[in-house]
Amino acid sequence: ASPLLSGSRSSKTFKPKKNIPEGSHQYELLKHAEATLGSGNLRQAVMLPDGEDLNEWIAVNTVDFFNQINMLYGTITEFCTESSCPVMSAGPRYEYHWADGTNIKKPIKCSAPKYIDYLMTWVQDQLDDETLFPSKIGVPFPKNFMSVAKTILKRLFRVYAHIYHQHFDSVMRLQEEAHLNTSFKHFIFFVQEFSLIDRRELAPLHELIEKLGSKDR
């Protein structure tokens, strides 16, 4: 496995890693994803493998992106503090307020570390919910799975956006930029392949996304 996937470079994660049970079909899918990623063709690597279930493919990759972002953010938590990032932003034009629709219904303004803590805990709770992300063979995905996955990915994107806009200098000092870029490029190609995030939501990193895409045409 590459350092990107095995996490050998930095075992610091922000939240506990979410493991896909070994021996399960989803684990096989994850292995397939890792193998195709190794080929270096990301556009091809994100495509739905022949004969596979779209929901399952999206579920496996969503867990994987959660783990990747968890690790990337884990490396910079000491630079993302209440005082350095009093609001959750992605550059001067984009500010995010947190609401999850259940515990916090009305969006609240909070610091970036607090927001990301809320966000990652919320994602973790969704991933751990067997009715939303069934790990057992033959258990069907719920009817609303796609909309749940879209909300998770839309929110995970915000963590990338915050890291790029507010902490890229720290990422460079840690020599993690190749790792961040590969992870983000994989994420973007994936959400583009299945139209999972609205273009408006991607606006804070629009230029970077254009640049990543143009190299691969």
TrEMBL record:
<feature type="binding site">
    <location>
        <position position="80"/>
    </location>
    <ligand>
        <name>Zn(2+)</name>
    </ligand>
</feature>
<feature type="compositionally biased region" description="Polar residues">
    <location>
        <begin position="1"/>
        <end position="11"/>
    </location>
</feature>
<feature type="binding site">
    <location>
        <position position="85"/>
    </location>
    <ligand>
        <name>Zn(2+)</name>
    </ligand>
</feature>
<feature type="binding site">
    <location>
        <position position="162"/>
    </location>
    <ligand>
        <name>Zn(2+)</name>
    </ligand>
</feature>
<keyword id="KW-0808">Transferase</keyword>
<keyword id="KW-0479">Metal-binding</keyword>
<feature type="region of interest" description="Disordered">
    <location>
        <begin position="1"/>
        <end position="21"/>
    </location>
</feature>
<keyword id="KW-0418">Kinase</keyword>
<feature type="binding site">
    <location>
        <position position="167"/>
    </location>
    <ligand>
        <name>Zn(2+)</name>
    </ligand>
</feature>
<dbReference type="Pfam" id="PF03637">
    <property type="entry name" value="Mob1_phocein"/>
</dbReference>
<protein>
    <submittedName>
        <fullName>MOB1A kinase</fullName>
    </submittedName>
</protein>
<dbReference type="InterPro" id="IPR005301">
    <property type="entry name" value="MOB_kinase_act_fam"/>
</dbReference>
<dbReference type="InterPro" id="IPR036703">
    <property type="entry name" value="MOB_kinase_act_sf"/>
</dbReference>
<dbReference type="GO" id="GO:0016301">
    <property type="term" value="F:kinase activity"/>
</dbReference>
<keyword id="KW-0862">Zinc</keyword>
